[in-house]
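Tokens as discussed.
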């Protein structure tokens, strides 16, 4: 969620588009209300309408996966798709962080934050193969909590963006990641938060 807020601060037009979709999906007007009232309008039906929000969260995960490097242990001798042989007990690692930026996987705009890449011509979210978008792994090891994670992210972000606007404290600063098991922003994220109820 920190990377999500960071990317929205770097792309205020996208932040605004997400907020407009959220307010439309929850049938909320722009007159004054509080966070609790707004949260009560975030229903399952409303969440299903938030296709652009889903795409924006997914685009954030493409560029900033929670687990940037993942390793697996081989249980038996095998041959990888490229013909490389591995032996039982070998460690094989892949890098979702690097894969999310590879042009031969995502195209020439791989480094751009572009939620629209996840939407069809009607504005509906279209998932990619989990072997391409590896933030939740794939195959037999696909994350069992993927849908729950998306639901949590959508609830939390819809309330935040439905009620608040975010700006970086220092708009010239570029966030750097901290090398850990999970992908953290080094030094945290300093932001200004503004009330949307005005």
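Sequence:
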């Amino acid at each position: 969620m920190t990377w999500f807020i960071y990317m929205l601060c770097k792309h205020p037009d996208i932040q605004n588009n997400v907020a407009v979709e959220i307010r439309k999906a929850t049938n909320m007007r722009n007159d004054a209300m509080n966070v609790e009232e707004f949260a009560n309008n975030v229903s399952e039906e409303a969440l299903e309408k938030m296709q652009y929000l889903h795409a924006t969260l997914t685009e954030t995960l493409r560029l900033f996966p929670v687990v940037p490097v993942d390793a697996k242990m081989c249980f038996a001798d095998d041959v990888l798709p490229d013909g490389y042989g591995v032996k039982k007990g070998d460690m094989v690692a892949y890098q979702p962080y690097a894969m999310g930026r590879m042009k031969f996987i995502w195209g020439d705009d791989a480094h751009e934050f572009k939620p629209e890449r996840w939407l069809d011509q009607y504005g509906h979210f279209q998932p990619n193969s989990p072997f391409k978008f590896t933030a939740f792994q794939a195959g037999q090891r696909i994350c069992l909590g993927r849908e729950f994670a998306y639901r949590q992210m959508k609830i939390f972000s819809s309330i935040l963006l439905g009620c608040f606007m975010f700006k970086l404290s220092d708009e010239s600063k570029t966030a750097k990641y901290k090398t850990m098991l999970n992908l953290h922003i080094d030094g945290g994220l300093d932001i200004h938060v503004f009330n949307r109820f005005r």
